[in-house]
Design brief:
Structural class: alpha/beta
Distance between the termini: 11 Å
Number of domains: 3
Bound molecules: 5-amino-5-deoxy-1-O-phosphono-D-mannitol
CATH topology of the largest domain: Glutamine Phosphoribosylpyrophosphate, subunit 1, domain 1
Radius of gyration: 26 Å
Helix content: 25-40%
Strand content: 15-25%
Shape: globular
CATH architecture of the largest domain: 4-Layer Sandwich
Largest sheet: 8 strands, antiparallel
Oligomer: single chain
Number of helices: 19
CATH superfamily of the largest domain: Aminohydrolase, N-terminal nucleophile (Ntn) domain
């Protein structure tokens, strides 16, 4: 849930650390800190509560520099977001930054306190610093040895970067159930919880495995496995352009990411679909005709926006492949007693690949014998590594906390999956597959058209941003888009919103409708158009304010609506990829009009790696 960056080399590193933290701020932003050692071993620490700008101000007031250092940006789990709880934590010779949760920290803390050790924070992390310091004080002959001793006593998850004042030319890095990458530069080495932190300095990364530790020096990196044996890990080249992690002139990352969607969908489809043959190639999933023929069902597990992508997957797969699909919130699935078999395909959907509930759910499915695959955006993330097969979305780094391009690439991925399953089990004819693949390939161009005219969203923002509540309605595969539209609005504008199946409106929410309630209705021309249109009439009859998202040229809908957002005409199968852009833009322009923190909404974090 936090971000870490570390550097060891021969050049001053304060700017690099602060820049790395800036690129990691999406991982946590309630406090931040850096520690830098000069070559005499003198270490200075600067920490600040709040966003990174507060740390930068504090650092500028009393600057310092050195050639070894680490930085941390925090999203609190144990202890309030205060300066004293901000990382790095120093105990004696040891300085530590940590991501994750030490589950047995209270027990360890009490034991350490009984030995007379004094704690200066409320964090679980400080326990780690004490344990390493204690190991050094009781005979461990190196930082590496001391860290291993400390880790033996810890239960929980961690990505750690450790410095020691006696050895100011090295950093010790450790990983368990929390991501950590390392990289070699020219006369230097880097450590980071996420690739973008140091992507402007290198593209070649080593993804540490669970239980690994690594010793970083300017001229060499040594990696050790969970049994402390030296080990080689492969170097992976990351092709993301560092500039793609910047805002590129857009006011917010979220807006930039909304506009990136056509290109990211092209990337996601590239090389995987063939219109001519009506085929989809996803060998990375390891599915063949026999496996698919034997499937008893598919179970999607996911959270938040990724869960709505799963719901769309259900509609599409059942439609074209006729395989039964269940969708389940990962946080519910993991504590139920789900019925799975070796013929069940469990699919996790996760942008980050680190969401704790989704990870636990996919582990649960695996334990119960199901085949597991995931749809994921982060290469080598934990969920990706633990699944039997991975279908990577190619959304690139998503910085805005509110998910946009990750969602549409997930929907593109489940669409391809539906087509693949249908072709493998023979339920989808080649001609029909060709039509649907063609429709998918046309989506980026349609999205470009949609993104050209934003006046309507600015108008909606001016007219409706004072509303205290919104209702979103949709049927069929537009129902998950209604839910996603409501989630987007809640997340970034803090306006209450509900996404409802349009047919359910008369079973309750209809009571809410009055002149004050904006109702966003997803009503493109599709198989359930007439049914949804009746719901629009019901809203109108009760004086509700209608924002209709429908097919371009639908004058009947336009006449009924207060505002109409026209969508390019497209087959039902791909319509969610268009209507979602409209609900993203409604949320964005309302939030921007209200002046909320669009990219880092209050109380939210990009990657929810704790329960
Ligand atoms: O990384 P994941 O896709 O597993 O994340 C799941 C949710 O936490 C995420 O989609 C969340 O709901 C977003 N903030 C939605 O915009």
């Amino acid at each position: 849930m936090c971000g870490i960056v570390g550097f060891v080399g021969n050049t001053p590193c304060s700017s690099l650390l602060l820049d790395g933290l800036r690129r990691l701020e999406y991982r946590g932003y309630d406090s931040a800190g850096i520690a830098i050692a000069d070559d005499t071993g003198q270490v200075r620490i600067c920490r600040a509560e709040g966003k990174l700008t507060r740390l930068e101000e504090a650092f500028r007031a009393e600057p310092f520099d050195g050639t070894v250092g680490l930085g941390h940006t925090r999203w609190a789990t144990h202890g309030r977001p205060t300066e004293s709880n901000a990382h790095p934590h120093r105990v004696g010779r040891v300085i530590v930054a940590h991501n994750g949760i030490i589950e047995n920290y209270l027990e360890l803390k009490e034991a350490l306190q009984r030995q007379g050790r004094h704690f200066s924070s409320e964090t679980d992390t400080e326990v780690v610093a004490h344990l390493i310091d204690e190991a050094l004080a009781t005979g461990a002959d190196s930082l590496k040895e001391a860290t291993w001793r400390a880790l033996d006593r810890i239960e929980g998850s961690y990505a750690l970067v450790v410095m020691e004042t006696e050895n100011p030319d090295e950093l010790l890095v450790a990983r368990h159930a929390s991501p950590m990458v390392i990289a070699h530069g020219d006369g230097c080495a880097f450590a980071a919880s996420d690739v973008p932190a140091v992507l402007s300095h290198t593209r070649d990364f080593v993804f540490l495995e669970d239980g690994d530790t690594a010793l970083l020096r300017a001229d060499e990196i040594s990696i050790f496995d969970a049994d402390h044996r030296p080990v080689d890990r492969p170097i992976k080249r990351i092709s993301w352009d560092p500039i793609s992690a910047e805002k590129q002139g857009y006011k917010h990352f979220m807006l930039k990411e909304i506009y990136e969607q056509p290109a990211r969908i092209v990337d996601t489809l590239r090389g995987r679909v063939s219109v001519d043959r009506g085929e989809v190639h996803l060998p990375e999933l390891g599915l063949d005709a026999d496996t698919v023929a034997a499937l008893d069902k598919i179970v999607f597990v996911a959270c938040g926006t990724s869960y709505f992508a799963a719901q769309i997957g259900k509609y599409l797969i059942e439609e074209v492949a006729r395989v039964p699909v269940e969708t389940e919130l990962a946080s519910e699935f993991r504590y139920r007693n789900p019925i799975l078999s070796e013929n069940t395909l469990a699919i996790a959907i996760s942008q980050s690949g680190e969401t704790a509930d989704t990870l636990a759910a996919i582990r649960e499915a695996k334990e119960r014998g199901a085949r597991t695959v995931c749809i994921c955006n982060v290469i080598e993330s934990t969920i990706a590594r633990e699944s039997d097969g991975v279908l990577y979305t190619h959304a690139g780094p998503e910085i805005g906390v509110a998910s946009t391009k990750a969602f549409t690439t997930q929907v593109a991925a489940v669409s391809m999956l539906a087509l693949l399953l249908g072709r493998l089990n023979g339920r989808l004819e080649s001609d029909r597959a060709q039509e649907l693949i063609e429709a998918l390939r046309e989506i980026p161009a349609h999205m470009e058209t949609l993104l050209q005219d934003v006046d309507v969203y600015e108008r909606i923002a001016r007219q409706y941003s004072q509303a205290t509540s919104f209702l979103y309605l949709g049927r069929g595969n537009q129902f998950p888009i209604a839910a996603e539209g409501a989630l987007k609005l809640k997340e970034i504008s803090y306006i209450h919103a509900e996404g409802y199946a349009a047919g359910e409106m008369k079973h309750g929410p209809i009571a809410l409708i009055d002149r004050e309630l904006p109702v966003v209705v997803l009503c493109p021309k599709n198989a359930v158009y007439e049914k949804t249109f009746s719901n629009v009439e019901e809203v109108k009859a009760r004086g509700g304010r209608i924002i209709a998202i429908g097919t371009d040229g639908d004058h009947r809908l336009q006449n009924l609506a207060d505002v109409m957002i026209p969508l390019p005409d497209a087959p039902d199968f791909v319509q969610p990829l268009l209507s979602v852009v409209a609900v993203q833009l409604i949320a964005y322009y309302i939030a921007d009009f209200k002046g909320t923190d669009v990219d880092q909404p209050r109380n939210l974090a990009k990657s929810v790696t704790v329960e």
